[in-house]
Amino acid sequence: MKRKTLALVGIAMTVIIVFSVAATATVLIPSMAKVEEKTESPTLDKQAPPDLQKVVFIHYKKDKGSGRGGDGKGPKAPKCYDFIGKNVRWKNAENYYVSSALDKDVIDDSVNTWNSETSSSIFGSSSVGEHTWGEYDNINSITLGTYGDPKVIAVTAVWWNPRSKAIVEYDIKFVERWGWGNGADNLMDLQNIATHEFGHAAGLDDIYKDACSEVTMYGYSDYGETKKRDLEEADITGIQELYGA
CA–CA separation, 233 vs 245, rounded Å? Predict the structure, then answer.
C-alpha cells in the first residue's frame, strides 16, 4: 500500500493522517469507508488526539496482474522489507484484545511468530474482548467485521508519535465476508493474514515487488494461502532492524 499524506490514491495503499495541535480540525478515515482511487473525502473526527500520526493498511485479495515487476537494477536482489517510518516502533510491549468471533490461539501464534525473532518483546499478552476498530482509545483491538470494498481482506490502523517514534496503538480488522479457516482452499487462512497484519502493528510496511512475493509482508493474499505464516529472511531482517536480534 503506497503512502500518501492526506490523500487516498492507488488501488493498494497506505493512508497517513497527521494530527496537529495547531489544526482546527482533524481527519480520520471512517472504518466503514470504501478506500480506492476515487473516494469521498474523509470525515472529521473532533476527538482525535493531537501530535499523532495514523496509518491505515488495506490488505487486498490478489487478482491476476497484481504486484509489480522487478526493480530495474539488474541482478541486484531487491530489498524485500520496509518500515512505516524511520525507527518507528514499540517502546514497551502492550497487551491486545481479540474478539470472541476469532480464534485467539491462532492470533497468539501469529504474534509469537514475530516475538520469537527478536530479544525484545514486541507484543504483550492477549485477552478476549470486544472493542472498536479504527478509534484511538488506548486499546489494541483485533476484530471481525464488515468493510465497504469487496476486495479487502483485512485492514490495520497504527498510531504513533512522530517525535518519540513510539507506536502507541494498533487495531486490526478481518473482513467477515471471506470466511476464515485453517488453510482450506475456499477460505482465507486466519494465521496467514494475521501474521502479515501484526507485521504492520510492529512497524513494517507492505512490499509489492513480484520478486518479493514469498515474504510475509507481501501486500496481496488469496484463498488457502499459508506461506505468510512463516517469516522469510527479509521479514526477519526488517523486524530485527527495529527491535534487535
Answer: 13
